[in-house]
Amino acid sequence: MSSPKIFKVVLIVCVNTVKKLKKIMRDNMGIVYIIPWLIGFLVFKFWPFASSLYYSFTNYNLFNSEISWIGLKNYFTIFETAKYTKSFIVTFKYAFMTVPLKLIFALFIAYILNFKIKGVNIFRTAYYVPSILGGSVAIAVLWQFLFQTDGLVNQIIGIFGANPINWLGDSRYTLFVVALLRVWQFGSAMVVFLAALKGVPQDLYEAASIDGASKTRQFFSITVPLISPVIFYNLVTQLCQAFQEFNGPYIITKGGPMGSTTLISLLIYNNAFKTYDMGLASAMAWLLFIIVAVLTVISFISQKYWVYYGDEGR
Amino acid sequence: MTRRQRSTLSTILRYLVLGIVGLVMIYPMIWMVGASFKTSNAEIFSSIGFIPKNPTLDGYISGWNAEPYKFGVYMFNTYKFVIPKVIGTVISSTVTAYGFSRFKFKGQGFLFGLCMATLFLPQVVLNVPQYLLFSQMNWLNSYLPIVVPSFFAVDTYFVFMLVQFMRSISRELEEAAEIDGCNSLQRLVYVIVPMVKPSMVSCALFQFMWSSNDFMGPLIYIDSVKKYTASLGLRMFMDAEAGFQWNKVLALSIITILPSLIVFFLAQDQFVEGISAGGVKG
After folding, report:
1. Which of A298, A270, A299 is nearest to A284 (CA)?
2. Count of CB atoms within 10 A of residue A71's CB?
């Protein structure tokens, strides 16, 4: 009778497998904990990302069940349609208007706040509140309200004798109004700068003053280099966000007048969820992605020339 | 000018700049609050002063009771998805951050890089396929597309924040717990979580803020007015409002941001710390 023997072998194999599994489990316990993220990444990020590239080469429309491969046609359409190219130009203008202004403003105010100022916390809160609420519809409503023809802004410039301006109806001003909403939310960048400024050792300034360096000189030769990693961080995040702005223009001006505030994300939204032209919208989204990626890579490469990471290098 | 005089002058100058900028930042909101208590557009646009002549709650009352649903319905809808979303984000991000910061495994560096790279991936690129995915799952016109992903740590910003924090705390307690026979899950629950609680609270607060102000997500996924969130309800109200009575619109705007404002003022320091720890979007 060999059955007990077989039983024994099976048992040993089982025990060994369990042991092996246990070892594998122990070595890879970390993977078990990141599984939720991994699933989320594959299902909600990677798959959509890859399939949007595929859709961008098709004529996929929700009203038309047939999908066919049309190569680069969507991309050509974008470059050939004035309305679409304008939207890309408007987005660039928007980003290059808001990002530098916001960063300079945030750094400037953080710099002043970093002197021994009484009531730092009150000022900090006052500057920070707009940016914590900034993305909400309510704040966009407020913005629309302020820039009405008889709104607060025109009343204030009226005090200085200027004529009221049709902020929301004149395509020369609309982009500026929408951009200003973003600059107004400089608070979060400011808080990050303030934390960085607090980390700059005071004795450097003392040494520089003894050597006779002016405050301006100290700012550009000590402060800026030492907080350059944070400037870099703010630059990259702000750029990424500026290219994705949606709420402000969507609510305040609905992209108008005459497309003057139709940022790319509005254009994508209109094509995807108004006309359900998913193929074209995906191509636009991918162009946006490429632009953001190129700008991010350029910033990362440029780091070498102006970002200072301390003595130990990177 | 003596040195003393110069330093007084520059101090005054600093306060002046801070004061003016502060006024520019805050006055629009004060004007908004004032206007919401005014009786008519004529009064609102007649002066730059914010104090109403005859303060009235009309704006609030008629705004709140607007057709077809009372505004309370939209407010309730908002928190119906915000709260599960906050819970999902905190749990999944903590678990993921634990996996990345406390274990070594094959491909860890690569996976963490991938996780961080998604921080730079514009949501706009994902919107179309995500919409198609959720429509296949029959999840359209529900809060599921907004809530479910958060249980899978898709907002990797929070993972990043928690990993940073976990790396900074010492492992001695965990080692002691391991010797006492705690397995890795017990170590997470009984050792790590109590220590990273402040960071988890920060994550919860930020996610609360962002998702209650979120507009694009609900705009894409929610169709029926009955399920509208506060942001959608407010926008619909604005579009429907012929003749535009600003006191009503502004009163509702204030109602939508009031919970966020209260949370912000209660937990201000946590926000500032959270944002300074790793920087934040917004």
Report:
1. A270
2. 9
Instruction: Record the pTM.
Output: 0.87
Question: Rounded to whole angstroms, how far apart are CA atoms A195 and A110?
Answer: 9
SS3 A69: strand
Residue A8 CB-density burial (10 A; 0-12 exposed, 13-18 middle, 19+ buried): exposed
Q: Write phi, then psi, for A147 (nearest 5 degrees).
A: -100, 15
Print burial letters for B102-132: b (CB count within 10 Å at least 16), e (below 16): bbebeebeebbebbeebeebbbbbbbbbbbb
Residue pair A59/A68 in contact (Cβ under 8 Å)? The answer is yes
CA B37 to CA B46: how far, in whole Å? Answer: 14
Contacts of A292 in chain B (CB under 8 A): 120, 122
Among chain B residues, CA nearest to A138: B253
Task: Give contacts of A43 with chain B, Cβ < 8 Å.
Answer: 133, 152
Orientation angle between helical segments B193-213 and B246-266, nearest 10 degrees:
170
Domain ranges within chain B, ordered by starting residue = 3-56, 71-278
> What single letter denotes the amino acid at residue B84?
P
DSSP H or E stretch at residue A189? helix A187-198
Rg of chain B on CA atoms, in Å: 24
Using N-to-C axis directions, what is the helix angle for B156-168 and B268-278, rounded to 10°?
90
Q: What are phi and psi of B7, to 5 degrees?
A: -70, -35
Cross-strand pairs, A69: A58
List the single residue in B21, B130, B276 with the smallest CB-CB distance to A44.
B130
A76-306: CATH number: 1.10.3720.10
d(CA A51, CA A70): 15
Angle among Cα B212, B213, B217 to the nearest 5 degrees reads 90
Residue labelled with tokens 């396929």:
B129
Q: Are B97 and B115 in contact (CB under 8 A)?
A: no
What CATH homologous superfamily does B71-278 map to? MetI-like (1.10.3720.10)
DSSP 8-state secondary structure symbol assigned to residue A254: T
Cα separations in angstroms, A257 against A97, B162, B173: 19, 44, 62
Residue A136 to residue B276, Cβ atoms within 8 A: no
Question: Count of CB atoms within 10 A of residue B197's CB?
Answer: 11
pLDDT tens for chain A, residues 1 to 314: 567 788 888 888 888 888 888 777 777 788 889 999 999 999 999 999 999 999 999 988 888 778 889 889 999 999 999 999 999 999 999 999 999 999 999 999 999 888 877 888 888 888 888 888 877 899 998 998 899 888 889 888 888 888 888 888 888 899 999 999 999 999 888 988 988 888 888 888 888 888 888 888 888 888 888 888 888 888 988 998 899 999 889 998 888 788 899 999 999 999 999 888 999 999 999 999 999 999 989 988 988 888 887 654 43
In contact, A59 and A70? CB cutoff 8 Å: yes
Domain ranges of chain A: 3-55, 76-306
Mutation for testing the B interface, residue in A24, A152, A239 having most B CBs under 10 Å: A152
Q: Yes or no: say if B159 and B97 are a contact pair by the CB < 8 Å rule.
A: yes
Q: Find the closest chain B residue to A142 by CA distance.
A: B32
DSSP A64: B
Residue at token pair 């859709």 = A55
